Each structure stands twice: as C-alpha cells, then as structure tokens.
Q: What sequence folds into this?
C-alpha cells in the first residue's frame, strides 16, 4: 500500500464512497459507519438486499465496546484470545449504531480484522468501517485485489493487500447473557470452530448454553445459496455414477430448479452441459479454505460450463473442514 493509495481510500470514505479493503478472510467493501450514504452505497454497489446485515470492522476493543449495549465477560475472553482474527461477535447493539448496518435488528456484528492494511485504514479513518465481502450479492467472495477489480469492472478503488490468508469469511457467534449463563449461537462456521470457543470459555469456568439459530438473518451468508461461481457447481455426495453420469443428471435436474431462491440467481445452463471442470482440495483444511474461492473463479474461467466437486468424507473429516463445506453447499447449484 502506498501513501497515495491510503490517501485516496480515506478521501473516498470521507465523501460517502466505498473502498475495496483487504482482510485475512476475504476482501471487504468498506464504508464509514458514520456516513449513511456510504452505507447505502455498499448495498447498491453489491446489489445486496437491505435485509442482509453488515459486519463492522474495528481497530481495537475500545471501538467494539462503544458499538455494543453490553460487553459480556465471554466477549472479553474471546476477543482477548481471537482478535485480531476471523471471529465476528453478534452483540446487543448500542443505540448509536445506524439501523442500515443491522438491517433493523437489535444486534450488531463486530470483528477486528487481522490485516495490517485494514487496521491502518480503520485507524486513519478514526471510525469503524462496515465491510461485507467485495462481490456482487450471492457471487463468489474475492480473495485478491484483482478479484474485486474484475467483479466491479474497475469501478471500485481497491487497496492491494495480497492474497487473503484465511480465504473464507469469519466465524459468526451470537453472545448474550441470561441469568448468569452465557448463551452462544453459532450463526456461521469458519476457521475458528465451536470447539475452540468451547474449550476457551470452559477453561475460565464460564457456564455455557448452546442454542441453534432461529433467525437466519442475524448474520450475513445465511441464505440457502451464496458464494456461487459463474457456472453451475455440482456437489456430488451420494451419486454412484461416473462424471458423465453426473453431467447427464445435472442436465436433467438443473432445469427443474427455480431461477432464483431468496433473491440469489441460481446458476443454470442455457444449453446442455458438456464440459466439466473439477474441484479438488489439498489434505490440509487451512490450505483448502485459502484456495477455495480462487479455485471457483479460476475454474469458471477455463471454458468449462460446469464444475464437479466429488465430496470425500474421509479426507474432509473433522470440525476444521466445516466452514469450507458450508461455503461449498451454499455455492452449489445442485447436490447429488
């Protein structure tokens, strides 16, 4: 990042603009939380529905505490252990938080990104930045500056911070206290797992209760389909045929799907599928997650008309794979 890059980004943010910001998870489309027009521009630039809340990125815990109505002991422990890093906490919001950020909810998502450029940009702006992923709504998230430039055809100023080291979006955890018990709800899986969280908090003798989410719109990325590449992704889990059989079955079943689900356009072919590209992973879940979105984008650009992923339950065992598999399930047009 050059001083000129930083100055341009700060000027844009101060005048209701949006900026492509690198983080360790994915690139974000950032706006100042005190500029309502900038917040609206996030939604219009991404073509994102206003019911999908934004995550606020902070430079330090003091900024985070100012956004929350309460700061549970569990929040203090979790932020001390995992911030800066890929953990978003959903907390009861302070009255000062703009409802555009929260989509009218009484909670707000907050995290401190683990990337020097993101932290410097927030510090220089002197105000937290709201920043969902820098891609059009429902599309594959960007993990390089060039992905953002391609997504918005060069219309968004992007600070190049190199490739993202985590590669999938943050873990999202709802935290609240009820009668001396800390109630946790995992709203989005990510690199920090529920077992990491459980072990940490129980080591502090925190009384925990885990709940299943009842309102999927408390956090972004909760729709049935999301992160979708430009061509259909076929997730093969329990289909016994060969790859030609997968293609034939996809040709038959893709046309039975609706054109969109919950506002996300389903990738369906305009002509019969003929040429497949194949998604494969390394054995290390950290490396697999880091490469996922780049692979989906690269395979979409090969001239293939669909992507086949054959799930290997032996390879993908354990909680460390769950965040990646969550993204793959949502990115798939069809599961066989």
A:
């Amino acid at each position: 990042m050059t001083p000129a890059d930083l100055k341009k980004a700060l000027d844009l943010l101060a005048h209701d603009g949006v900026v492509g910001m690198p983080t360790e998870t994915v690139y974000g489309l950032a706006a100042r939380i005190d500029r309502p027009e900038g917040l609206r521009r996030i939604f219009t630039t991404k073509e994102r529905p206003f019911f999908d809340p934004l995550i606020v990125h902070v430079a330090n815990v003091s900024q985070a505490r100012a956004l929350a109505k309460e700061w549970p002991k569990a929040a203090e422990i979790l932020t001390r252990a995992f911030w800066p890093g890929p953990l978003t906490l959903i907390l009861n919001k302070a009255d000062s938080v703009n409802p555009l950020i929260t989509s009218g909810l009484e909670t707000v998502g907050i995290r401190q990104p683990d990337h020097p450029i993101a932290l410097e940009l927030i510090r220089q702006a002197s105000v937290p930045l709201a920043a969902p992923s820098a891609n059009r709504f429902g599309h594959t998230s960007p993990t390089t500056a060039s992905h953002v430039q391609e997504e918005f055809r060069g219309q968004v100023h992007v600070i190049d911070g190199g490739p993202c080291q985590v590669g999938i979006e943050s873990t999202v955890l709802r935290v609240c206290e009820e009668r001396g018990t800390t109630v946790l709800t995992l709203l989005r899986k990510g690199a920090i797992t529920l077992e990491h969280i459980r072990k940490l908090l129980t080591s502090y003798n925190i009384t925990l209760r885990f709940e299943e989410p009842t309102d999927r719109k408390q956090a972004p990325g909760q729709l049935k389909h999301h992160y979708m590449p430009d061509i259909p992704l076929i997730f093969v889990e329990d289909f016994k045929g060969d790859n030609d059989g997968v293609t034939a079955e996809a040709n038959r079943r893709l046309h039975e799907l609706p054109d969109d689900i919950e506002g996300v356009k389903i990738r369906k072919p305009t002509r019969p599928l003929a040429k497949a590209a194949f998604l494969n992973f390394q054995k290390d879940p950290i490396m697999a997650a880091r490469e996922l979105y780049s692979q989906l984008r690269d395979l979409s650009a090969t001239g293939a008309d669909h992507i086949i992923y054959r799930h290997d339950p032996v390879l993908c065992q354990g909680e460390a794979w769950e965040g990646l598999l969550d993204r793959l399930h949502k990115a798939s047009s069809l599961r066989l």
